[in-house]
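With this grant's support, we have settled on a layout for protein records. A representative record follows, to show the layout.
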Amino acid sequence: MKIVFAGTPEFAAVALRDLHAAGFSIPLVLTQPDRPAGRGMQLQASPVKQFAQQHGIPVAQPVSLRLDGKHPDVAAEAHRQLRELQADAMVVAAYGLILPQSVLDIPRLGCLNIHASLLPRWRGAAPIHRAIESGDAETGITIMQMDAGLDTGPMLMKEAMPIVGDDTTGSLHDRLATLGGRMIVEALQRLESGGLRAEPQLDAGVTYAAKISKEEAALDFSLPAQLLARRIRAFHPFPGAFANYAGTTLKIWQARAIEASGNALPGTVLSVDAQRGVIVACGQGALQLTQLQKPGGKRLAVAEFLKGFTFDDARFGVG
């Protein structure tokens, strides 16, 4: 079975690795153009490109696939490459470019997407973040037959995974990537043999996972502690939740919601203890901060952090 693969980050690289290990013919990989990264802002290849180059798989990096977009010549060349390959299917995982209908129609069996949610819940760009932020008990992987809509195509396979209490986007991402790699291999094998049928998505239960912005990672202590604790986990490792204390922006990497009595104003530091953490009043309950980072410093457990930072009578910012 001949597969074109389209993906960019580590989540996609895991699936490409599993498809390669399963023996699928992969004559071409599509991935985003190299981007500046790191302190030196040097151009860096995506994880998908790195894997492809290590295993001798040809790579194309078009800036667009839309014939009616800003780069029609680039898109036309990509279309030509795809048509000439006569692939059986295209697998798409966190690619980052819109696939127009003219591309979706090229592979014999169409284009399959590995989506990190239980569709129709959390269509869109950030399904892992939003599932944690919203307090979902589970998420999972959906293998979807792509259409021109935003994650609206019929579903070929779906498998759930629990979200445990200390899950961050980072930890959940890694487990879902592993699940997605296994499922796409099975889906292609069953699709080729005719043992897989598509199921339309229901209109009920549709939610949209908007792209994460750095601004929304700012903690507002007037909100309930339970919500803030979920946001800290959802924005870990990127963009990293932060809060302002006495003019200093502190990253908050680990915290949990606890009960609190009294009428302290949100943002008030209720107690500071090297073992228990920094307790901060919220709109409801309190937040127990246990891993923090100051500007230019390292992420530290609270006992180490308190050796170089003092909490006095100031309050964390709100609103």
In short: The chain has a mean pLDDT of 95. Residues 32 and 319 are 37 Å apart (CA to CA). The chain has two domains: 2-209, 215-305. The radius of gyration is 23 Å.
